[in-house]
Structures are given as structure tokens and as C-alpha cells.
Amino acid sequence: MSLQDEVLRYEQQTPRSRAAWQEARKYLPGGDTRTSVFWPPYPLFFTHGEGARIWDEDGVARVDFINNFTSLPHGHADPSVSRAIREQAARGTSFGGGNEHQVRLARMLCERVPSIELVRFANSGTEATLNCLRAARAFTGRDKIAKAEGGYHGTHDAVSVSVKMGPDLMGDPRRPEAVASTAGVPQSAVRETVVLPFNDTVAARRILEEHAGELAAVIVEPMLGSAGMIPAEPAYLAMLREVCSDHGMLLIFDEVVSLRVGPGGAQARYGITPDLTAMGKMIGGGLPVGGFGGRADVMELFDPTKGPVVSQAGTFTGNPLTMAAGIATLEKLTPEIHARQESLRDRLAQGISDVAGEFDVPVRVTGMGPFYGMHFVERPIANARDAATVDQDFKRQVFLGLMNEGILVASYMVGALSTPMGEAEVDEHLDALRRVLARR
Ligand SMILES: Cc1ncc(COP(=O)(O)O)c(C=O)c1O
């Protein structure tokens, strides 16, 4: 079977999603309101989710291994999270002032993540990284920032550089070019952003040292998420920590995704302490959220009783509904749940390698904690360039094939385990992959 056959199967299975998408196109450019969830020929439209499963407009249930891009560690409509939302909704959804849930969620994050001495909330991960960078600029008095090639930190200008690149635009692997990742990013933003090769400790150090006096911060995901769940080498992060300390730059870990890799996030796992941490996704329990925190002397820039002040606003920031959902989610995310999700992930990763081996299909499974990325290539995957070498048609074929067989992952072939999943769901994923590869 070819990619075309999988597309045909998909179209036969999902006529109502197609109709919904066609209707949507009349009002929403491209028929959706989020470029990242579009895939050809058209994306699915969903009606509801429960536990490990999600239903589409045609009534087809799939096991959801992506859970709104890893933001739902306990799956859909988790009873305790839903209860917290219902109870708060009955008391009001947003107030123009403080509320007790903010304080409680802030305390939980400070207790869980030792580098976070003070924290603030926002409405998205994008705002979280934006405020981290603004704080770093205010703190250091410098304008430039450095980021890793292939790192995704949301949609604001400073970080919309060298995220996803065509192979012709990537430049020298040891000295990547800074390239705008979308139309509309001003060249001034591109010029202010220095791009580092991911996981190349020697080359990245050299670039950082060349720009040392002008850089406010290095922002990095400890595991490249949207590039395919590619963990950083410990030595790479250790080098970033050292160079930042030596040259007065702040080290910002973007843990919007990776906070879920275990208690204390990826920083606890690596034993590396960033100055600031950006958070999002799961800390809002499925509602819109961002959070950022870290060293008290930097976070105090946001304190209006002191000065100089970095102003941060947002009408729905810290709203009690999101905060209540976040608290319920974190309370349930115990060390035991972290460990269980990780052991299921190990079973899945081993199974994916075994199933691909049955069909002589090369695969590299990356990831950490509950997260996995599937890369159908022989070469080890250390960065976004390695991941970009996969056969894109084959990747699409497996993505649509899995969907046709009842398994939902991200179109860039990553997923995460969730609390309502057990060995049965892992085996469903493996059986689906076996059927897809058998007919390829
Ligand atoms: C690592 C990382 N940082 C930041 C963001 C941006 O978060 P949001 O989509 O909430 O703006 C994302 C979103 O996928 C992310 O994966």
C-alpha cells in the first residue's frame, strides 16, 4: 500500500470530518484555527474524549497518544480535574484580582521544582517564554538571545527563528544560519537571535563565546519536543550552564513539555539548575496556561513594589478555573504515576523497535519520561537535522495508517503515555503499527 492508499482509507473513514472542515473553510483560513494541527488532506474534527480515548465527528474512537500536544497527563475528562473545573465554574471563572488557587498552584510549582523560587502565570507557553526573555534582557541589559536549532518556544518573533527549516536553508551544521520560521518575522528579530547547533557541545560553546558580551540568555528545551522528542546530551546542558554562568547570561529551560518527564521536570533529571524555567501545557490541567519562574533576584523584576519593573499583564492570567484544573492535575501526578507512565513508555518504545524489525523497517525511538518520538531512519537522532532526514511520505503514510487503525499521535510522529493507559493501550498501538507496516 502506498501513501495514496492510506489517504483513501482515511477519507472513507472520516467523511464527517471532511464536511466539517469544508464548512470551516468558509470562515477560518485553511479550515482551522491552529496551523499546528493541520494535516493533509484535512484534519479530524473531534466531538469528545474520555480517559485514553477520543472520538471524531464520524463516531470513530481512537486511543489518544497525543492528548492535545501532551497537555493532558491524565487523559480526557479526568474525573478529579473535571470536578475541580465544575466547582470553580459555579463560583466564577475570572476575576480582576488575586485568588487562592493562584497561590496554591504557585506553591506547588515552587515545591516541586527547586530552581523556582518565585513564579508567575500567563495564558500560554508563548507568553511564558516571551516573559522569560524579557526578564533576561532587563536583568542583563543586553538584547540578543541564543536558541537551539529546531527548538520550539511558541509563536512570538524572538523565538520564531530556525524552528523548522527546509534542508536548503539550514547552512553549516556547526554554525547554523538564523532563519525566520514563518513569513512575517522581521529581520530585526532574526538578527537578535543567535542559533546554536543542538547537542554539539564544542560548536555551540564556540558560538556562545563569540557572542558572550551581547547575549542576555540562552533558551533551550532539555528535550526538543516538536523536532521529535530528542533529549539533550547531559554534557550539552552542562556546557550551557557553565558558559551562561561564566559570561553573565541567563540559562532558560523551556519545560513547557518536559516538566512532565518526572518530579522536578527535566532539570531535576539532568541535575542542572536553570536561572528561569518556562512552563505551560499540563500545569493548566487542559485549560489555557503558561507559567514562568526561577531565581528570586530575576523574578523580582516583576514585583511592582520594587524597581526596575518588567510589566506583565493578561486579562485571563491566573484565572481561578485554569488554576483549579492545574492543581487537580498536579495533585494526581504523583511520583508513582510518573514511574508508571515511564515504564509503559519503555514497553512501547521496545515494542516499536521490535515491530519495525519484523518488517526490516529502520526505526529510532527517542524520548524521555512518558514521551516518545518515532523516526524511521537508520542513523541515530541527535538533533532536528537528523530528524529531518526521514522519508516524509513514509512518515505521513505511517501517521495516517496509525490513525486509520485507531491510534492518534502527532503528525510529526511523537506521543506520550497518559494515566488512564495500561498495557492494553500500548499493545493496541503496537498491533496498529504492525498492521500499517504489513500493508506498506
Ligand atoms: C517547548 C514549547 N515551548 C513553548 C510552547 C508554546 O506553548 P503555547 O502553545 O501554549 O503557546 C510549546 C507548545 O507546543 C512548546 O512545545
How would you summarize what this structure contains?
This protein has 440 residues and is an alpha/beta fold. 39% of the residues lie in helices and 16% in strands. The structure holds pyridoxal-5'-phosphate.
Task: Explain what you see.
The protein is an alpha/beta fold and 440 residues long. The protein has 2 domains: 3-73 and 334-438, Aspartate Aminotransferase, domain 1, CATH 3.90.1150.10; 79-332, 3-Layer(aba) Sandwich (Aspartate Aminotransferase, domain 2). The chain is built from 16 helices and 18 strands. The strands form 5 sheets. Strands 4-14-13-12-9-5-8 form a 7-stranded mixed β-sheet, with helices on both faces. It has a 4-stranded mixed β-sheet with strand order 1-2-3-17. Strands 15-16-18 form a 3-stranded antiparallel β-sheet. The longest helix has 24 residues, at 335-358.
